[in-house]
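User: Please predict the structure of the protein below. I'd like the answer in structure-token form so I can feed it into my own downstream comparison script.

Assistant: Understood. Taking the following sequence of 611 residues as input:
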Amino acid sequence: MARAPLLQLSDISLTFGGDPVFADLSLVVQPSDRVALVGRNGSGKSTLMKVMAGLVEPDSGARVVTPGITVGYMEQDPMMEGFTTLGEYAASGLDPSESYKVEIAGEGLKFDPDRPISTASGGERRRAALAKLMAEAPELMLLDEPTNHLDIEAIAWLEAELSTTRAAFVLISHDRAFLRALTRATLWIDRGAVRRQETGFEGFEAWRDKIWDEEDMQRHKMDRKIKAEGRWAVEGISARRKRNQGRLRALQDLRAERSSQIRRQGAAAMALEAGAKSGKKVAEAEGISKSYDGKVILRDFSVKIQRGDRVAFVGPNGVGKTTLLRMLMGQEEPDSGTISLGTNLMPAIFDQARAQLDPDMTLWDSLTGDPDMRVSGKADQVLVRGAPRHVIGYLKDFLFDERQARAPVRSLSGGEKARLLLAKLMAKESNLLVLDEPTNDLDIETLDLLQELLDDYDGTVLLVSHDRDFLDRVAATTIAMEGDGRATVYAGGWSDYQAQRAERGGTADWNSVSYDGKRKGPAKSESASAGKNEAKSALSFTEKHRLEALPGIIATLEAEIEKLEIFLSAPDIFTKEPVKFRKGTEALADRQKALAQAEEEWLALEAKAEG
């Protein structure tokens, strides 16, 4: 017997004072659905998710949730008014007997429940909102950019949790690796229409490109027909005026249909050009160490970075990646050891805090007021790599319209702020790019363009990122900072680092969750991972990925079982807290069953891999 859908939207239309955001939109979310919700920045993904959550009322149409089904929503900017601490917010709405779930999620996501909301950063607030949702465990989870501001360790924890949940979920994310690992269906928003394909994100880009190719072919055929019919209208109508009125009306209808078609938004016209070459040596560190308040950030580390290198810095949040980057740039002194910088360095810096953007300035003033971009005597022009450009024209290159030019920076979305910061960075002549978390909030098409620009950039790139796919595409060297002052240099990107560390006897990453990325750049340390890949050649891509992810899933389940067993072993809990004891017992049974299934799956896949 078919199960009732969890959520159904029927003939939804929504307009925000202009062109329709959606028109006659219908979709269904079924039990156990794992759906990627994708589309360009500004296409309406977050708006659609708010409609699904019941937070935005459409102009027309119906939203139906099956009785008894709970829908949970994690928004990008959670409202926390009325709560004092992050932990108080995360536990709100939960039965006191289930507060342990917030503790488990809090440990995995690494947020401090005692942190006052008034001093919490945007990333800390988002982690608390995610912990709240995971603890509530609704039948349908709606997650809007859950991986933003998470480090790879926390992303791995979340990936493991979602891979074992019984709940259905819909994900908005720019993290390809995350989407590939978790989704089995894709909702694509494009110019107000929503299409669904019953395959995960792995197949999205091929599907999208096929639809666009078919659309371009149909548009080309229509243009040719309009041209031919227009020629006929000029040359032949006088001979049979009455007989041909129907054909003329058909031509007018064709023209109307063609003019009503919504053109696809083009990619940002970003350009990146290196300035004069730096010296062959960019930076060299010899035996450097650094500590803060008794905590060792770095111990006896040496590295040499040369012109043209692509170096990624990876590690958990707070481990010291930005500190090491600042030392290598000469912005901070090590406690011991030496750092020498190369000659003729022209750095351009993208900072994750967006500190270069004043939220109260307009986009126009943000560009024209930059000393490096100011054109003397011209209030409407900016200097772009040495040549004057009109400020509106340059903003349009980064997909901003004329109306937005006079709007304050604070009105921009996260992705738009990232594009504005890229506009400032790419206007400057440089031969050294320092990119600290550039991928947060950018849509997939802009990420693709940024990667291509970095591939062609004739300078040096230093990159901090938690986006595993982007690291694989860009980095040729990875510096892994793993705590306790340890930093190790590996050849290649994220996947190469994983493989090399596993061969040295370490785990593949901090939670033993691996990602088998697809690189588009030059080969990186192929010999390091060749043996591993060859040994698993009997497995499909999905099976290989699953086999590498299972140890992390098993470790997470074991940790949760241990916490529940400690919780249930408390004296008199059965007599004093019967409800709490019952729920804890049920949770323990669920985790033990999931652990047994994961271990059996791992054994089966390992046996298949070994032939």
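That's the full token string. The two ends are 39 Å apart (CA to CA).
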